[in-house]
Amino acid sequence: MEHLCKLCSGLDLASISQANINSVYRLVEGSNRGRDMFSYTPWDVSLGHSTALLTPYYKSIELLRKSAEACHLCRLILLSVDTTLGNIGVDARTEKITKCELFLAGQENTEGLQVLGYDKDLGTRRLIYYLLGGVNFWVDSDSPLSGIITRRQVPESPQSTVSLKKMKRWMVQSRENHKHVNKPTRLPTRVLRVNKDSQEVILCDLEDQYAEYAALSHCWGSSRPFMLTSDKFHSLRSGIPTSDLPKSFQDALWLTCQLQIPYLWIDSLCILQDDPNDWIHESSRMSEVYGNASLTIAACRAKDSSQGFLGPRTVYEKITLPFHVNGISSEVFACAPPLKYVGEPSRIIDLEDEPLSGRAWTLQERYLSPRILHFTHSQTYFEYGSCFSAEDGCTVCLPPSNPDVVISQYLIPKATPQCWRAWRKIVARYSRRDLTFEGDKLPALGGLAARFAAESIGEEGSSDPSDCYLAGLWRDDLIRGLCWESEFPDLSPAGISQAPTWSWASTRSSIYYGTDWFDEMEDLAVVRDARVELETPGNLFGKVTGGRILMGVTRLRVHRRPGSPHLWRCEDDKIFRIGTVWDGRKYLAPEPGRPAISADGETEIFAVPLSWIKNNLASRDSPDVLVGPFFIFLVLDEDSLNLGQVPTFRRVGSGSAIAFHDPGEGLDKVGLERLILDRFMVAKDQGKLEDIIIV
């Protein structure tokens, strides 16, 4: 038993862990997600500083630090708190937090503690309890507390009998619960079969045959893995020792045999990597390959195929604590988990600390797969349906409305706002991942796009599939889909040969959809026609060589002001500014009333309003502020000059108009609102929009 201080010895850990503070306090995530800062505030501020569900702990972090010199629980809690303070960094807030009075509370839906810091200096004006750390409890399966504490100790090896038994149980339960999806499915063109007690692997051509198979999702890494090429084709057909393969492939073959699945599909061994035609054909079938697999094995922890994913796992520092509940006295293990999983337990689903989660191709592999075993640094997870089960006994179930469930579980409503919002969320998440080959940006999402088209468009969408999907956007959601913004605009664009400038796929930057904060938006532009040029005819969800959108718009010439990063527009004596985010390189607009001077690097820039947020949050919270239309910025396309009557442009940026009542600056919120309603909306309603082409 660990040594505990007098304060920790007197804690009723069972009562504290069972106290659900969410009935009294609401959790608020900090603005900077990367720092994982959370805080609690009362649902009813009039209650004041109530300790009904909070257990007083040390009066300051310094007192905790002193006690941690001898007390093991104080030391564990201090480890968690110091990690949080390190993530915050040194600033004025850090100094305030170190002076907070500490309290303990229970965690939601699991057994453990939360460490809260009460900012007493704020008094009753603003009640804030910072989430500074956490402690999880778990027991062995034979513990007297096993019927009360749900978490279990995880074996160090994922190849242990206990771990393998858990995986088999997950597979059996998923099959029993959904017998209609357990029929043998059509095999991919090529699969691997293991013979002679996992000592030999054979490449088989079994296209159009039906059987169960597993698929591997893995990181290729900087060094190319063992690959199927024309010169290795016959040797793999004849069979090679499994010891010749990289460790991740060996691990996947071993696991496939243990789970009694006859075949395994690995992209680098089942697609001819030196045959472009074979690669194009097989990559276009990713929706079927992962969608039909009985199981996807996700090698989350391996940076490349040489590392393997069945080695010893990371072990958290743990201590043993006395635990008394319902007349049972025994012991629990305790460790300090990452704060993000204390504040937001469902984030274990993101697997954000694993190398595989940073690879672009694997996002669609995950969404397309009906069953997945995720092998991480700390434990194994099983994902099936809307539930995500951990080897330690923790389970997270997402609601059917969650975009992740909407996309991955065939619950996509036909061409609805929920459907399109789910896609935009997936695209934003996908754009943050890495690609080995830049040209794969659209193909690496093509399988998911194909599944999405089949499920969401169906008979209710466009009748021509080639007219539905447009370089990562959808025809029926094109105005909203064009409202993407670059997160890191200093990165150079990928080039028009990969995707048209209006597509998010044309930039190397990650992107986001700021307009998705708003449910109701009214279009200010009209799409008349939209097309893309496919690199491979018939491969609708693969690479493109270009594309064009014919739109009816209101086109505004914008200018700059010295010292301002924004673009400005004067319209009917009303001045408003547009917050500017460039897609790639920055442009220099001319000053007001002057033509662009190319010798000085100035470019004539046009702003096109796409959509109008009628009931925006800023208007309700700040009556003198208006967040106006979302714009895209265009420049004339020099390659298309004088080629036709309709002017042609390239997209170079985006932004939202902002106006507030400031007579000194000439800014007028009401004036912008009237401009939107009386000019932009009227032009659209009366069919007086100008036709332009964007390439």
UniProtKB/TrEMBL annotation:
Domain Heterokaryon incompatibility, which positions?
Answer: 213-365
Cited Pfam families: HET
Designated name of the protein: Heterokaryon incompatibility protein-domain-containing protein
